[in-house]
Amino acid sequence: MSRRLILFVILSVLMASFVFVAAPANASNPAATTITGTIRSHIARLRATPGTRGTIMTKLTRGQTVVVLGALKHWHWLKVQLQPSGQVGWVASFLVHLNGVRLRSVPIVAF
Questions:
Q1: Could you report the per-residue pLDDT of 29-72, keeping only the tens digit for each?
Q2: How many CB atoms lie within 10 A of CB 103?
Q3: What pLDDT sits at residue 89?
Q4: How many domains does the chain have?
Q5: Of 99, 102, 106, which is closest to residue 40 (Cα–Cα)?
Q6: Contacts with 55 (C-beta within 8 Å, 6 or more apart), sequence order
Q7: Residue 35 buriedness (CB in 10 A; 0-12 / 13-18 / 19+)
Q8: The domain that contains 58 carries what CATH number?
Q9: In sequence order, what are the residues at sequence separation of 6 or more whose Cβ sits closer than 8 angstroms to the Cβ of residue 65?
Q10: Is it the case that residue 93 has pLDDT exceeding 60?
């Protein structure tokens, strides 16, 4: 009887260790959600700093898609990244239609 008990315990330990090793761990870091926006104005400029006095880096065209990285406090200016160039700058928020999210859900970033 003791041999059966020992065999049972050994098999139980082996099975338990297999389950713990084979089971994938839950991801502790949720995947970052990318916020995109579409330029909705015929005249839009990517600026180096937020505000109309910021140096104009490039002109944006209506319908162009940008990746929204964040917004200044009060959501007047959006920090965006152009694709595929990767150029980062600022655009007035009223010139951008956010795809699938509300403006207030854009994270606040420091300038």
A1: 334 689 999 999 999 999 999 999 999 999 999 999 999 999 99
A2: 15
A3: 97
A4: 1
A5: 99
A6: 47, 48, 49
A7: buried
A8: 2.30.30.40
A9: 36, 37, 38, 39, 83, 99
A10: yes
